[in-house]
Specification:
By secondary structure, the protein is of the alpha+beta class. Helix content is about 30%, strand content about 40%. A hairpin with a 2-residue loop joins strand 3 and strand 4.
Length: about 100
């Protein structure tokens, strides 16, 4: 995802419901195509909401910020390098904790 903002959900509740039900969301891209993404996790950092998404069948993931815009959820690319690094570290720590739990 290279576009600045994506719209794919009618509400925060829909995003969270889909995340907990099957972990796959569909996002409409700027060119009108739709792509499916796996929601790896969501977290809050310094008052902002973030989401880690991986395109279905991909081993790589993107981290984006998200916020409500009326009834829609707006996904935005994190442009600040320091912010991206801080959030990326938090997600990596979270993913590492899952690995540790599964080893027990």
């Amino acid at each position: 995802m290279t576009d600045k903002e994506k719209k794919g959900h009618e509400s925060e509740e829909q995003l969270q419901d889909e995340e907990t039900e099957n972990n796959v969301i569909t996002i409409e891209m700027d060119d009108g195509t739709k792509k499916d993404f796996i929601v790896l996790d969501m977290l809050k950092h310094e008052g902002k909401q973030y989401i880690a998404l991986a395109e279905v069948d991909s081993m790589e993931y993107d981290i984006m910020s998200w916020e409500l815009d009326g009834d829609n959820v707006e996904l935005s690319v994190i442009e600040d390098d320091a912010e991206y690094e801080a959030v990326g570290t938090k997600f990596q720590e979270l993913f590492d904790s899952y690995d540790e739990e599964s080893e027990d």
